[in-house]
């Protein structure tokens, strides 16, 4: 094809440099040179056309092959994407199931601990109240007995009444102190249970945060939930 272009350029040069015919637009060109160039063009065109056709055929073949490979690549990529998506979905479902099971276990443990603490607190409160009531009644009886004994003595009757009132007041104060200690004990146990529930809720919150985070690389294993009583 390059030789055809070169021959055409030479023909153009010959015509441009040809001597003009006076009073006309024609010119005088060397016939032999022009015919020689035309023969070269005529001989070169079929081979050049064949080469061009070969190039076109190869181009179509290459384009078809590239399209086929592209289709295979797209199909493979789609299959791989579907596989990765299915694995991610299965992994997410396992994480959700593990988180739900861990949350249920933590709640059950917290409920059991709460019921145990409340039961022990009630029992301790009853014991302390009973002890305070017995101490109070004993002190009152002792005060009354002391009061009765002192009343029989005219010189110390007033002191006996005062001492009796003091003993009764001390007994009442002791009963109040025991009641306050019982209330403080129950409040402390409830505070411990409140801390346990707060920790359980934080554990569940961490599990949900990990679940919502996503983006975990393929093959990564979710860290187990950390539960501490």
TrEMBL record:
Source organism, top-level taxon: Bacteria
Coiled-coil regions listed in the entry: 78-109, 161-188
Keywords, sorted A to Z: Coiled coil
Protein name: DivIVA domain-containing protein
Lineage: Bacteria, Bacillati, Actinomycetota, Actinomycetes, Pseudonocardiales
